[in-house]
Fold:
Amino acid sequence: MHTKELDQYVDQEVTLHGWVANKRESKTVVFINLRDGRGMCQCILGVNDIGEDMFATAKSLGQESSVAITGKVVVDERQIGGYELHATSLEVYQNAKEYPISNKEHGIEFLVENRHLWLRSRRQWAIMRVRNSIIYAIHNFFQKEGFVQMDAPIFTGNAAEGTTDLFETDYYGQPAYLTQSGQLYGEAMAMAMGKIYTFGPTFRAEKSKTRRHLSEFWMIEPEMAFCDIFENMDTIESFLRSTVQEVIEKCGEELELLGRDISKLETVGKPFPRLSYDEAVEILKGQKDVNGQNSLTVIQADLDASIARQAECETEIAEREATIAAGGIKKGVINFNQNKIDSLKNEIKQLEEDQRNLPKWLQSARDFTYGNDFGGSDETVLTRLFDNPIMVYDWPHEIKAFYMKRNPEDPRFARGVDVLAPEGYGEIVGGGERETSEEWLVEKIKEHKLPMDVFQWYLDLRRYGSVPHSGFGLGLERLVAWVCKLDHVRETIPFPRYYGRLEP
Structure:
């Protein structure tokens, strides 16, 4: 039986199996918050109910000890989940001692080093459950819309986009690469099935440690035959709206635990603004306002607010340290103040990082050169003016992949689209309409100095029944980061892999 099933057993005796998340005690009672992977339950172990020997054992339990607790289910709306267990017996599988991750604040590097244990925390529990719900919602959407899930290979003979950010390995005596994208194979599969999607791991050998980058991540890549860029954008919007709304409905407890303002996610119900590249550049550089707001003014205001908040934090730290130093207060009050100090110091670190970044973003926006791709800072500045995802389409063809179709009305632009999440999360979807002409593709392959022989099979798709088709790719981890409002994508995957990180 699990903690989520307690409502079915009120006033009945049940047994819960799990781990000691935390514990407090008095002379006659031990209170254990038991986690079982599905949720939490407070268990009350009284000396008169379980006996002195078992009570002594309960008092000795360390954090993350594994136990089975039997007792009566009692309604108590004050407790996590609305129920508690009045114990009648205790069985110990292992009494854990000196658990490395205590309930105090820890630095992020320490937590990443202990990722195998950090996963047990309530915050990580909530994130992983949201991730699971997002994955379920993704499959649910595509299956309902008539897409067929198919699988692209992980080993490939060449980069999908001709880049150099590849992990090379030996494949029976010849070089092979871990895939960057399943898109090209997705196009082949769409020509067979009409509408398909792939869902699997992808790899980028980027020596980057930014908040948005991982070396190994999961991609969802739909591909649709007889579909132009505008139908593609409609699908993207419907997909994101459906996925996020389903997660809001199913993960209210988890999102609340994470402190996520759900109203910020509910904006997916509104139509996504669609901006051409030209319009987006004007907004980015502060040449065009959005709803009376200017990008440069907003960033400056954010910087001023960050400086003011740091001053508030420093004042509060000084006051709490003075309270501790004065003495004459209980241990619990001391611990409360110290934990608050640790939390404020971590907040200051974030504020200091903001104060390093915001001036750079401001300068980058001012200096942006028309024709360039948007960097992370540009996306952050642009999306600060919107409360829901935006779509930027019709990009300069020089900065898009060789397979991207030119706009027939203005060949300077490629029919690509990027979806940028609000709140500074930047690109979460990239896609577009694919070139249908074999002649054009051959020229683009030559232009990009790609090996023609590697792409002969891909050119076959234009030789035999070429049709208008489109698709997109979504990075699962970036979507999880936005939905959960996380500072770094490394929290979005059980065991993150990024530059310099291979363990645990």
The mean pLDDT is 94.
